[in-house]
Amino acid sequence: MKRAAFNHRLLPVALLVPQIAIIAIFFYWPAWTAIQSSFYLEDPFGFGSTFVGTDNYTRLFASSEYLKVAQFTILFTVIITVFALGAALLLAVKADKVLRGARTYRTLLMWVYAIAPPVAGFIGVMLFDQNIGPMTDLFNWLGHDYRLGLNYMDTAFAMTITSIWIQIPVNFIFFLSGLQSIPQSVKEAAMIDNASPTRRFWETTFPLLAPTAFFLLIINITYALFDTFGVIDTIVYGNPASNPMTLVYKVFVDGFRGNDIGGSSAQSVVLMLLVLGLTIFQFRMLERRIHYT
Amino acid sequence: MTDTTLSMPVQVAPRGRRIRLSVIGDHFVLILGALFMMAPIYMTLTTASHENLTIHREGLQFLFGGELLNNFDAAMFGQGGFSGEITGMSMLKNSLILGMGFALGKIVLSMMAAYAIVYFRLRFATFAFWVIFTTLLLPLEVRIVPSYEVITGLGLANTYTGLIVPLLASATGTFFFRQYFLSIPEELVEAARIDGAGPVKFFIDILVPLSRTMIAAIFIVMFVYGWNQYLWPTLITTDEGLYTLVRGIKQIRQSLAESNQIPAYGQAMALSIIAILPPVLIVVFLQNWFIKGLVESDK
Amino acid sequence: MATVRLSNISKTYPNGAKAVHPTSFDIADGELIVLVGPSGCGKSTLLRMVAGLEDITTGELSIGERIVNTLDPAERDIAMVFQNYALYPHMTVGKNMAYGLKNRGIDKATIAAKVDTAAQMLNLTEYLDRRPSQLSGGQRQRVAMGRAIVRDPALFLFDEPLSNLDAKLRNQMRIEIRALQRRLNTTAMYVTHDQVEAMTMADRIVVLNGGQVEQIGTPSEIYRAPASTFVASFMGAPPMNLIPAHYNGNGTVAVGSLSLPIARPADHKGEVVLGIRPEDATIGGTTPFKLDLIEELGANRLLHGTIDGNAFTVNAPNDDQPLATDLTLSLPNDTLHLFHGESGVRL
């Protein structure tokens, strides 16, 4: 709040009402419903529901399928985060270094950001298609009988690489702007103090990039958990059962295809807790260190 | 200048060569990265210029063929779907409505809310802040099932309202404008108050014009975000007349998976390009604003 | 044009912090009064309360005939120049100056005439269509002045208006502001932390420390008879030498083994602080002075050293003569100031 804030009473309330109303109706109400129905078992035909306590949760954690999905989600998240961040950092460092064509490289490396995940997923499906995909040809030539949608690992591979592909631009943009915001004087001081470019990077540049990197870490985890939905949906289309999927996708599949509202809601609540934990971790870290400015 | 190069030729030469090598290495990495990012889209475009039969027989194409315009024409104006009333044009229109409506709604709502939080002495300001900012915790994907039930319960399925408004229930824009308003020097509002400007005048005369670049930047980011929405449109629009381009991709995926004849690959690729093109053009040509909006809004 | 009266104005923040203790003084019509003190002394808070940007906790404030405590800033008939100028970045110079008038519903022709007059006065005529970002620091400062002038207010408020300028420009603007204020004959309240600015510009100075008024007086009163050790050390450059001493009531003060006669006997006996301005001490006398360092200032030089172990500075005319380490000083007894040893109040 500003020191010399206005003293009106009704105006700020009127300004806040639209936003708060939308959030109340379309955020808090559904979120509350999810928590509520996670304790109920709904009749598949829509004839009422019965209170079952924590049954939905115990059923969930006893389900080997759910645990398998959870396991895949963790692996998927780790791989995407590592590769999307690593590749973007490498490219950003190079793009920050070159003098010629820096702007062109920036444009070429970032524009894929604008592509929607499901469209990326669809292009992925085409590239890895059984009949027409050049990637499939490549795998066959290497001696692997690649089968998208039939072989679990093959599908997972297409999913992961497509997800990494569309996540690189965001990371690239943030790393590059992080690099460019390092003051010239700091770079010059490092030049004088430290001869080796590699050591200079790890001892000066990278620590200064740490806040950006940490922020991106959170963003990438969130992305892998939630925003990859479109990629997964187009790639496993029509046949989710035997294919890899993430926890979020399972919420959707169980809720809409399986009509298991109670189970799906319990999964939602588990994910809510996960995000809550992630956020608390983020705030903790931000408070503790990684603040050099 | 001449003196130094003459006196130390032995030291200068290898150093120069090493630098040149490392520069070539940098460019090599960047070109490789750019190829990795662009190749899939390039192949989508080249494949969109061939006949379905060619694609079916030979796979995705690396070079351009002669069918580009035909495929684009079919994708834009050919009737599709169960009802036959869905064309690329109708989907383009819906995508624009979603992108624009979302971006505009986001900016109006969040500027108002941020203004109230930053510039007024409000007893429940902290409470309002937390009510709004908790929404950052739960992406729509997590609460998708109950959201769907609530919105269909309100009779908003298959309406533009039902499509756009629920997506506005998040704090991203508000948070962004709050940060920006806080960064505006305190003295500006003080000077304005001494100049006799009340809260409404200050907002319209000073704050909005001052935020122009910020508004443009956030508009671009939000437009792209809205345009690219997938899960929510998929659920809430069952009426094909309301399909967006991104939603249409699911339709195409379905027809490819289930068709018995040679799938309309060329047309599908062309539609993908159409779905990609508007946000890509915006991101490329309004790059500086876009980066500003992206980098600052996520802080 | 108006007189301003502050009676028992004080400020306590909601968290209980006292920023300004009850303060009373009057500003005469056309007078320029400078509030000076270190940062956090409450000078800006006091100014902002007069402006109406900060609520007044207790006391009564009147500008002209009106009590303005509860009035909005816009209704107080004041104009303010801010430290960072606070120009509207998206408006041209002309629009910046006109905005306050426009909000008062003044007709366009009158506004244009007033802006023109002010622009001429400040040499801004050719910049009227530029944006603030296209101007230099000094020009922006002038625009801020212009914005204040066009309003033709009863009271000017200046909040450290020169502290963002470089030293040369600051000297020049100091003179310009002072001349302008004289010419317009508008009552003014000026906040600064710079004692040179305070001394050179003020009709009267209010020295503040820790939310309390230490002294109110003309620049020469403040210089000649500082009311406390705080004022003595804050006003004047280099600051007054302050040496702990003992006063036994018989007309001399004892500094260690030295004994100095004073002109004016005081009531207080015991521990005191002896004050001597560096420019009042002269070389050659009876007080031994050990010289450590010479700072050349051109016409003058500063001799830093010690008297009986206490740091002491002499501001002597520069005669280019080499100086020995051990000197003697003459400290005329009518230039000695005595302060209470504990409270620091002038005796």
TrEMBL record, chain A:
Part of the ABC transporter complex UgpBAEC involved in sn-glycerol-3-phosphate (G3P) import. Probably responsible for the translocation of the substrate across the membrane. Gene3D superfamilies: MetI-like (1.10.3720.10). InterPro entries: MetI-like, MetI-like_sf, UgpAE/MalFG_permease. The keyword Cell inner membrane applies. Belongs to the binding-protein-dependent transport system permease family. One of its GO terms (cellular component) is plasma membrane. PANTHER family: BLL4140 PROTEIN, SN-GLYCEROL-3-PHOSPHATE TRANSPORT SYSTEM PERMEASE PROTEIN UGPA. The complex is composed of two ATP-binding proteins (UgpC), two transmembrane proteins (UgpA and UgpE) and a solute-binding protein (UgpB). It comes from Pontivivens marinum. One of its GO terms (biological process) is transmembrane transport. This is sn-glycerol-3-phosphate transport system permease protein UgpA. Residues 74-282 form the ABC transmembrane type-1 domain. Pfam families: BPD_transp_1. Keywords: Cell inner membrane, Cell membrane, Membrane, Transmembrane, Transmembrane helix, Transport. The chain crosses the membrane at residues 12-31, 69-93, 105-128, 156-177, 206-226, 266-286. It is found in: Cell inner membrane; Cell membrane. It is a multi-pass membrane protein.
TrEMBL record, chain B:
It comes from the Bacteria. It is found in: Cell inner membrane; Cell membrane. The chain crosses the membrane at residues 21-43, 96-117, 124-140, 160-181, 202-225, 268-291. One of its GO terms (cellular component) is plasma membrane. The keyword Transmembrane applies. Residues 92-286 form the ABC transmembrane type-1 domain. Belongs to the binding-protein-dependent transport system permease family. The complex is composed of two ATP-binding proteins (UgpC), two transmembrane proteins (UgpA and UgpE) and a solute-binding protein (UgpB). This is sn-glycerol-3-phosphate transport system permease protein UgpE. It comes from Pontivivens marinum. The gene is ugpE.
TrEMBL record, chain C:
Keywords: ATP-binding, Cell inner membrane, Cell membrane, Membrane, Nucleotide-binding, Sugar transport, Translocase, Transport. GO terms for cellular component: ATP-binding cassette (ABC) transporter complex, substrate-binding subunit-containing. The keyword Nucleotide-binding applies. GO terms for molecular function: ABC-type transporter activity; ATP binding; ATP hydrolysis activity. One of its GO terms (biological process) is glycerophosphodiester transmembrane transport. CDD domains: ABC_MalK_N. Residues 4-235 form the ABC transporter domain. Pfam families: ABC_tran, OB_MalK. It comes from the Bacteria. The keyword Methyltransferase does not apply. PANTHER family: MALTODEXTRIN IMPORT ATP-BINDING PROTEIN MSMX (PTHR43875), SN-GLYCEROL-3-PHOSPHATE IMPORT ATP-BINDING PROTEIN UGPC (PTHR43875:SF12). Belongs to the ABC transporter superfamily. This is sn-glycerol 3-phosphate transport system ATP-binding protein. The lineage of its organism: Bacteria, Pseudomonadati, Pseudomonadota, Alphaproteobacteria, Rhodobacterales.
